[in-house]
Amino acid sequence: MTKAMKSILLLFMLSIVLTACSSNTEGNSNDSSSDDPSSSEEKADGEPTESEGSSNFEDLGMGDTVDLDTNVGSFKVTLTGAEMKDKVQGEPTQQGTYVITKLKIENTGDEPLKVEDPISSMSLYNDTKESDVAWLLLGDQKEWKGELQPGESSSGELTFDTEKTQNYELALRYVDGEGKTLRWKFSANEMK
Fold it and tell me: Where is this region: Disordered (predicted)?
């Protein structure tokens, strides 16, 4: 009987050790991805991580300009203003309001820049965090496209049909070796 109890006790201890080891291994694999020495070396090199790079632009607002060097070219983008309307070109809103963002883009590179490249990667977020794609290019002006030569700038408007909320963020996704997003934050009170 003592031999049977020793065997049971041994199996019980072995199962505890195996369970503990397998939990430890899982924990180690999760920890190693967040504490990877190579990633901490990259951080030590002064290269910002994606979250650190994003945090540099957390406080963008109306009137703020950002100078970018991306895979589509080098340019500056400024959110010069925004307004809300119930109708655009005679069409009533389907979501609650039209948010019309006013932008200025300047080519700071050495090559021509297609205006549609930066604006095609813009979207609007509201308090519910739903992303809305630009519904149309506003107004009587020509479609906002074409090339900007080095040093040239262009101003235009992007219209979003979105829910009426208190806060909005205009997001610009861009690639400069890794994908990043800039956000201009503004409230309904700041709009006309």
Answer: 24-67
